Amino acid sequence: WWLLGVLETERENYQAAYVALSRALALEPNMVQAHAELGTVYTLSGKPGLAERSFAEALQLQADALSALTGRGILRLRQGDANAALEDFLRAGLVEPRYARAWFYASLAYYQLDDLPRTEQALARLRELDPNDPMAALLQSLIALDKLDYGKAINAASEAQQRIRFLKSLNPIQANQKGSANLGSARAAFGLEDWAQFYASSLA
After folding, report:
1. Higher pLDDT, 135 or 164
2. Which long-range contacts (CB under 8 A, 24 or more apart) does 112-119 make?
3. With contact defined as beta carbons under 8 Å apart, do 77 and 85 qualify?
4. Alpha carbon distance 87, 110 (integer Å)
5. How far apart are CA 195 and CA 191, in angstroms?
6. pLDDT over threshold 90, residue 130
7. How far is 190 from 196, CA to CA, in rounded Å?
8. Which burial class, exposed, middle or buried, applies to 63 when counting CB atoms under 10 A from its CB (0-12, 13-18, 19+)?
9. Do residues 40 and 65 touch, judged by C-beta distance below 8 A?
10. Which of 102, 114, 124, 202 has its CA 20 to 30 A from that of 132?
């Protein structure tokens, strides 16, 4: 039930994830991973109070719980506290240096803090850990677009396009500051509207 909950969370089927994780906790009330994943479900579905409670329960059971630290960091990031979020992501990275989710969200926190060198370092680490995931390249495209570096934005978008079949969810970056989380945005900004429509349609 816990693993099913994780899968449904990644698919953004939050009600199904809630049902699966609730069943996992009914069978094992002290299952740290299920509490943490439930907190992430609450975070992503806009229920911060319930998310706080689930993360607190998980961290009370295990102070260095990897998924709970990362999930709480995501909540902090959504609440606008990038410094507190980054602290949680870095703690998670110390527990398990190969945990890709923490590195991806750390890159978002660094970017919100205008620390571009560390943003790039976090994204490079993410590429090492999960070379098939298009999210690192997609985020680099959006960053380059924000900086008006259209050539770099287009190249990164092309790289993301090559890996699009491995995409799990756009949820992590759907609230980027320009609302432009699709592969066609860089090309549209550069004036290549036909190409932009083709690439953006891959996310439909």
Report:
1. 135
2. 112/77, 112/82, 113/82, 113/83, 113/86, 116/143, 119/143
3. yes
4. 11
5. 9
6. no
7. 9
8. exposed
9. no
10. 114
Which residue is it, tokens 């978002």?
108
More confident residue, 149 or 166: 149
pTM here? 0.72
- Cβ neighbours of 83 (radius 10 Å): 10
Residue 33: partners with Cβ closer than 8 Å, 6 or more residues away: 2, 58, 65, 67
SS3 state at 31: coil
Mean pLDDT of 173-183: 43
Burial 145-156 (b: 16+ CB within 10 A, else e): beeeebebbbbb
pLDDT in tens, 51-105: 999 999 999 999 999 999 999 999 998 998 999 999 999 999 888 888 888 888 8
Size (the chain), residues: 204
Dist CA 13 CA 79 (whole Å): 22
SS3 for 67?
helix
